[in-house]
Amino acid sequence: MDALECLFTRRTALALVGPEPTAEQLDVILRAAAAAPDHRHLHPWRFVIVRGEQRKRLGEALRLAAAVRDPHLAPDVLERAAAKATRAPMVLAVIASPRESNTTPRWEQLASAAAATQNICLAAHAQGLGVGWKSTHLGDSAEVQRAFAMSAGEELLALIEIGHAAPEIKPKPRTALDLSAVVSEFGGDALTPYSPPNGNGKSAGHTG
Fold first, then answer.
1. What residue ranges do the domains of the chain occupy?
2. Suppose 21 and one of 9, 25, 58, 126 were both cysteines; which one would form an S-S bond, judging by CB atoms 3.0 to 4.6 Å apart?
3. Would you tell me which CATH number, out of the four given (3.40.109.10, 3.10.20.740, 1.10.150.20, 3.40.50.300), belongs to the domain 3-165?
4. Rounded distance, CA 84 to CA 151, Å?
5. Is a pLDDT exceeding 90 seen at residue 11?
6. pTM for the whole thing?
7. Where are the alpha helices (DSSP H) in the chain?
8. pLDDT single digits (tens) 97-141
């Protein structure tokens, strides 16, 4: 699979099954993450591998965090919170870890962490794995931050689910996007709309 095919065919896997990535596949994924654009080489990110029985421990941290945040949540809601850790054979947590810098602002370091997350998804897909970029609103909870040994200023950016896409559940088709709605050209007194070479402006580049 070449780079463009990987970009255009990656989709969020709606259901993942085992086995988990091999050691070699995981190493490629991690090295791809570390190849993200990184101004001044600050490495403003870190990654935590969660697999096997450890997924249940993370699930319990998510369950407790949800219960602490809202003591009135129903048991099935708490169960769904915990299930975020066990839906896939492996979870790779991406933690944005901005450094003190007079030259590289925090937003740029968070952008680097997001780029690393995208690289994870692409590297997994390029190796025939299923992947899903997921998030949780519980990332700022004391329970989750304790589980990931997070320091002040760090943010849980993503819980990347990795495994093999369940063959019976197909991803949703991409929605065509009119590029002229989001792309313009600089020049003159005003921006001008982008004019694609094929004339229709449609792209299958919608996210998901």
1. 3-165, 173-208
2. 25
3. 3.40.109.10
4. 22
5. yes
6. 0.91
7. 3-9, 23-33, 54-69, 75-83, 106-126, 142-147
8. 999 999 999 999 999 999 999 999 999 999 999 999 999 999 999
Taking alpha carbons only, the member of 155, 153, 166, 162 closest to residue 127 is: 162
pLDDT in tens, 31-65: 999 999 999 999 999 999 999 999 999 999 999 99
The residue with tokens 């709309």 is: 193
- Quote the tokens at residue 173: 């088709």
Q: Based on C-alpha coordinates, what's the Rg of the chain?
A: 19
Q: How far apart are CA 18 and CA 43, in angstroms?
A: 31
Taking the C-alpha atoms of residue 38 and residue 108, their distance in angstroms, rounded to an integer, is 9
- Greatest extent of the chain over all pairs of C-alpha atoms, in Å: 61
Contact 120, 5 (CB under 8 A): no
Please report, for residues 6, 28, 68, 122, the alpha-carbon distance to residue 3 in angstroms, rounded to integers and kept in the order given. 5, 15, 44, 9
| Residue 63, both tokens | 């369950």
**Residue 193 pLDDT greater than 90, yes or no:** no
